[in-house]
Amino acid sequence: MIRWRKGEVVGIRREWPGAVELEVTVPEGTCRALAYPRLVGRPEPGDEVLLNTTALAMGLGTGGYAMVVAVPNRLPEDPDGPGHLVKARYTPLQATVLGADEQDSPFHELLREADSLEGMPVVVADLHSALPPILCGMRPLPRVAYVMLDGGALPAWFSMACAKLREVGWLAGVVTVGQSFGGDVEAVTTHTGLLAAKHVLNADVAIVTQGPGNLGTGTRWGFSGVSAGEAVNAAAVLDGRPVAALRISEGDTRERHIGVSHHSLTAYGRVALTTAQVVVPELPGEFGERVRDQAELLAVRHELVSVPVDGLYEALLDSPVRLSTMGRGLEEDLAYFLASAAAGRHAVTLLG
């Protein structure tokens, strides 16, 4: 299940808040490795490191790093301070964090009886790569919180996009829920995560997606993005206004993802049991007709909202982070990014 290696750090490649990318020598040669200093301390050149090289050996695109498990000769200090939520539970790297909803939190009283999002728009998308284009579509940019589900990466620190979007002020904060951790705010469930976005971060809009690294099996139900349907349910039951962003592709080579992905059709059409506003971008030509026809399958339960895409390409060009989905950039799969931006465009129209 795990490929273990010992290695030696020979250099620091780059770093961003919460993560350090290293160059490490292992018996097979040199590789990229990623360390989360809050978990293992900060490795330095010359340090021996214990690595999990499983993802590297598998050639995973998103997670193709050797992961630093420990710096055995220079362990970090014991943590101090409050916090009783254990995340990545019962794994060797389980971590204790302070949850906004736990008893020791200064926000516990605020959240103990909190039960409503008070009509806050909640944009739900399948992939983490939808986060930047959704924000690009929001003009003027409101106060936005990102609620990160645990279907992909568990540490929010893995996301360079989150770090940059916080830095430039496009995100008011990140809320990590379920088994995910490392956000500005920690929460136990999607429900308390959404309530924390509203009442702790004072967000006008929340965006909900998985962390980086969607898991799919090519089966109808075997993909981590089913959580998008569950997020629609959570937003609706808390008196939010769910806005569903469709996963659309014109550049994917897999038939099940061309046009409206089967992920969206299953998550919104079968898993979501409450009504959302499903944003259908007004794309041109035969491909646009295909998208509209496929989206009609969701009209049984949801309200389909047609949103123009004029001006969104220019807005996407202004993204402060690199736009990429499944290894494809803006020009290689424009429809995907336009669909996400259209969801952001519609969400801001719901703000009173």
Automatic annotation (TrEMBL):
InterPro entries: DUF3866. This is DUF3866 family protein. It comes from Nonomuraea africana.
